[in-house]
Specification:
- The structure is a single chain.
- The chain has about 280 residues and is of the alpha/beta class.
- The chain has a six-stranded mixed beta sheet with strand order 10-9-11-12-13-14, with helices on both faces. A five-stranded mixed beta sheet has the order 5-6-3-4-7, covered by helices on one side. A two-stranded antiparallel ribbon has the order 1-2.
Amino acid sequence: MIQEKGKPIVSKKIIKILGDDLVEHTDDIAVEEPLQISISVLNLDSPLTNKNISITMRTPGNDQDLAIGFLFTEGIIQDSNQIKRVALDENSINVQLINSENIDLGKLERHFYTSSSCGVCGKASIDAIKTICRLPPSLADFKIEKNLIKSFPGILQQEQNIFNNTGGIHAAALFNVQGKLITMREDVGRHNALDKIIGHVLTQDLLPLDQHLLFLSGRASFELIQKAAMAGIHFIMAVGAPSSLAVEMALEHDITLIGFLNETRYNIYTGSKRIKI
């Protein structure tokens, strides 16, 4: 297996079965590696306190955005001004915070263990993952042409370099209300791809994203809706199905939620007021 450190793809020799024939082939595979996220905070009792926050299985790349986005969507930080420095050492990243006297380390004792398939594994309860959104409320009173929505899967597919090479990756993409692609991130974890986007826009001071559209390459889970709500997003589209809890969260935060989106059809679960039907 050929792998360069920090690269999102590895090459591996495999055997393909084509009818009755066996063919030796070199295949590209999406990388999945652990990333330990920790923070360093100022404390009255000691100059600096280090705290491990999460171990997440991710595809290397945009790790700084991932860590910052995770800390924001978990309610640990509120803006990029709290970040003094970010240090990445292979599969470990530390975010040193300033203005962190008010961070309650006791609340961080709940175990964060996130995997590529489910970002909420190991959390104690639903109440523990309902992070409070600190952004001001927004009406997001735009309307999107119904046929424009069907164009987004094709746009994303053209941009998904890792997926096109491996087939084993998720993506999250951010569009403006005119349908222009703003940014896109790929990862083996759905939640990681979204955290990478949110971390990026947070450092660019672009929050809230109340004039943007979020497109997800997989299903719409509760956790993804919650993360999007934290960033002020009011319009979410997914290739797959939403869960019942995702629909409830979308209703609670006045989010337009679309599922089963492809080039010919989609379902509107909540917030049809933002679609010109």
